[in-house]
Structure to design on (145 residues):
């Protein structure tokens, strides 16, 4: 009887250690919350705008980039705001980024070195991450072309 109890105790102990290991790994996983607000060229909120989130985009020989893999789609709320939660990316290779994409005719209007650009995608992982894991993309202006 004692031998059976010690085997049962050993099995229970091993099972407990595996369970704790799995929980520990889950605790160490990191997630980012991406937030932002979409406005039009007059600065008014754009409600109900569909945003596509992708991990990879294809530039198709210089044409308008398209999503190669869609993580999911979200819509802005009545104030033009959006929020989504994704696993954190620790590497910065081109294939391991998150892109926020729009469908025609909407385009993001951004500025780079004093030049205004209109593109259908925005690199979401460019936004700095705060201590709570929030990446605020800020106010994003769109135009319709």
């Amino acid at each position: 009887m004692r031998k059976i109890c010690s085997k049962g105790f050993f099995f229970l102990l091993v099972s407990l250690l595996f369970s704790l290991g799995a929980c520990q790994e889950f605790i160490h996983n990191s997630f980012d919350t991406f937030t932002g607000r979409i406005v039009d060229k007059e600065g008014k909120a754009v409600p109900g705008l569909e945003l596509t989130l992708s991990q990879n985009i294809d530039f198709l020989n210089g044409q308008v980039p398209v999503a190669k893999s869609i993580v999911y789609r979200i819509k802005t709320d009545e104030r033009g705001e959006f929020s989504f939660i994704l696993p954190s990316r620790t590497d910065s290779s081109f294939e391991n980024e998150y892109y926020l994409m729009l469908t025609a005719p909407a385009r993001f209007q951004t500025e780079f070195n004093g030049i205004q650009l209109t593109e259908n995608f925005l690199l979401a992982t460019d936004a700095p991450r705060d201590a709570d894991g929030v990446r605020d993309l800020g106010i994003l202006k769109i135009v319709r072309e």
